[in-house]
């Protein structure tokens, strides 16, 4: 396992380069990059087909930087400098446990003030370059794909908050006992929480830019499947606890690698299991018994599902149908994987189920309903 990027580099090249980056965080970032690419491609394709249209906006040009803009840029610069300078001056601590710095009040005030002034001055100089004696209003064209940066930022913020909220609900007993630790921990994220809250933010911003919700949902289906697959690579490589139940069964095929059938997740990032002999350092545990490597299964399945969705996107004409198919496939995939995955269960009226099983069931039902609705009303929705 590779809890940090440094472990990964050491495994590949044999070099010990202490870097303050976790493998899971790296793949979360790559998941956003993958989603950005897929979303952008679909927005461009749909605009070329005439399904989506560019938006005309009137903006004022030639205005100087306002006090509010300077303050906001200065505040942003202060936060960057406050943390960045502290990270640099305490590099070894950052390399060992960057969350301890990022999720705390620790920082460098002088660095914060310097970057605050730098960011405010930069904004002032940039606005001065285009300042006009008499500012004027002009009309600009905004293409659908040009809103992607804004979409990604708000999807990340709302998705992060949603993933934390749903994680707290899923592990409620532990959250009640350790609320602060749970909120500010580097782990503890629920995919469906991020999907629901991040998706809501995307739909809101898209609607403000003239994109109908069903069209935006269709754009997002393949991209979300791809992003999920990439993110799960990080879960597997870092050993973040999203593994399966104990698998004592013999391999069904002799040619199947052991790590693909039953895996102990050595050096996992959450420190679960028993100590590894002759291992020194922070990540020196492995599971006592091999478990199903469910993140890896999800990577394989979701990449196949992404390829399927990507291949049929030109054939689907009814608005909402693509996302309906995505909901069905996503729900079925997650429901099946929950059968062999470790998770907290709810007990209601004699029924035992996980949060993901409940949500994935609603996804399948909702996907079927949306698909029927899209097919019956394709002429009205176009």
TrEMBL record:
The keyword Membrane applies. GO terms for molecular function: glycosyltransferase activity. The chain crosses the membrane at residues 20-39, 59-80, 100-124, 145-163, 183-206, 295-312, 358-375. It is an enzyme of class 2 (transferase). InterPro entries: Lgt. Pfam families: LGT. Keywords: Cell membrane, Glycosyltransferase, Membrane, Transferase, Transmembrane, Transmembrane helix. Its EC number is 2.4.99.-. The keyword Endoplasmic reticulum does not apply. PANTHER family: PHOSPHATIDYLGLYCEROL--PROLIPOPROTEIN DIACYLGLYCERYL TRANSFERASE (PTHR30589:SF0), PROLIPOPROTEIN DIACYLGLYCERYL TRANSFERASE (PTHR30589). Belongs to the Lgt family. This is Prolipoprotein diacylglyceryl transferase. The lineage of its organism: Bacteria, Pseudomonadati, Bacteroidota, Sphingobacteriia, Sphingobacteriales.
